[in-house]
Design brief:
It is built from 19 helices and 22 strands. By secondary structure, the chain is of the alpha/beta class. The strands form four sheets. Strands 1, 2, 3, 4, 5, 6, 19, 20, 21 and 22 form a ten-stranded mixed sheet that branches. Strands 10-11-12-13-14-18 form a six-stranded parallel sheet. Helix 7 packs parallel to helix 8, helix 8 packs parallel to helix 9 and helix 9 runs parallel beside helix 10.
Amino acid sequence: MIKTRGIRALASFLGMAALLTVSGCAEPATVIIRGGTIYDGSGAAPVAGDLVIQGDRVVAVGDARGWRAPVEIDATGMAVAPGFINMLSWATETLLEDPRGLSDIKQGVTLEVFGEGWSMGPITDAMRDEMIEQQGDIQFDVPWTTLGEYLEYLEARGVSPNVASFVGATTVRIHELGYENRPPTDEELERMKDLVRQGMREGALGVGSSLIYAPAFYADTPELVGLMEAAAEYGGMYISHMRSEGNQIIESVDELIHIARASGSPAEIYHLKQAGEANWDKLDQVIERVETARAEGLQITADMYTYTAGATGLDAAMPPWVQEGGYDAWANRLRDPATRRRVIAEMRTPTDAWENLMLLAGDPSRVLLVGFKADSLKHLTGMSLAAVAEERGMSPEDAAIDLVIKDGSRVGTVYFLMSEDNVRRQIQLPWMAFDSDAGAPAPEGVFLRSNPHPRAYGNFARLLGRYVRDEGLIPMEEAIHKLTGFPAQNLKLRERGLLRPGYFADVVVFDPAAVRDLATFEEPHQLAEGMRHVLVNGMHVLLDGEHTGATPGRVVRGPGWVGWQ
């Protein structure tokens, strides 16, 4: 329950604050959260108490006696915590369409972290043209060139959550090499490193890679070490969708650790999983390698989503060589009968040379088609590849190739790949953070034209409800630490991730008995429940469970930002 003279009165109240201070009166607060169970984000046991916010900062934790504010929240029976950090967000476009970030705000996410291989800058004129040409349901202008300009553009337009990004290793590669399958020359690599340095000075968090996809697949380890050496000059982190999460997962973990060691940088594994039933028992080896590296002194961490299915495209079921040159070259090759036969043969052949998610799923009935660009194919949304192939009287491989050609895109796809037992084990790892690997849509408008993975609406609520409250896998304070203070520390964020005086007031208030996810693969557009209040930089974006329309989100910058100097 809120006691308030009105949220709209808050602005005029803030305008009076300076006058009151000058005249010698006690400095007023703007929001007081009273009587909640406070989880400060450090992993420490919770304490009952109050939280006092003044402007965009926390000013007192524990006791609010003597403070007064125009907005007071009765948090009796509620958990009070720092806002959650989404370590892998694809809200880069959804926030341009709808700045509320509703699916994530309703789960308590106050920071969206972008940059899994692709980032929204730096781009060339040709890359801008391609970005516009490949737009699907969401249409937007591209007035920026650098990554920093994109983030500032979001902030200037207004967004509800804070935003941050890694520089995409794929993006800087395309910037200099296009989609060619070859190593960069020394001069090209140096230009790529300069682009990374520029991104770091603009506030990027480090370098992100996604090595199963063309053209990222074409990058060798020395190229990635070179990029990370540039980022490490500014304290950046390496974060990677590794070269394999399936048959070659152990070798891929070794590569990530090597890049961290060689560049002198921290490294994080994006959405750790063991893809394909034959690889489920490799989790023990992954844990052993990470923990050995950590014991050596390397900062190796991971993040994950709380589901047994991943989501990407049909490109992850086809060999990387056929995709060289970008989508148009890929589609043109697939139209050639001889090339098509070769691609189908390789799609059906088990291999360690590239990551074939169709084979790792085990059966085309475990491959769901969820995102089409062409209106003529949208009626297939939610069907399995097996069902579409049967309907068309062709093989699943033929159907996949036809869909890529006809849709003008890679086609959004969900693959069921992982073990529920491994999901539970990973949640308990002390070096694990969390991500949605999804946009931040709303169950309305243009977003209903495609089906996201349910993780877009439920990942964080699912952790707190199903795995923490219902199954008791980890204590609530540990889960909140993994959502807040832990990733903030790994990313070297300043004054974020904890409830401490002087820290930014990114705050969530939720009912631990009611928090839960509702989204399913059949009906993914369902908002999570249980989140009562969300404040971003001290301003309510969720009030009594309803979005206020406020857009106080800011760019959160990494350790190399020139503004720190």
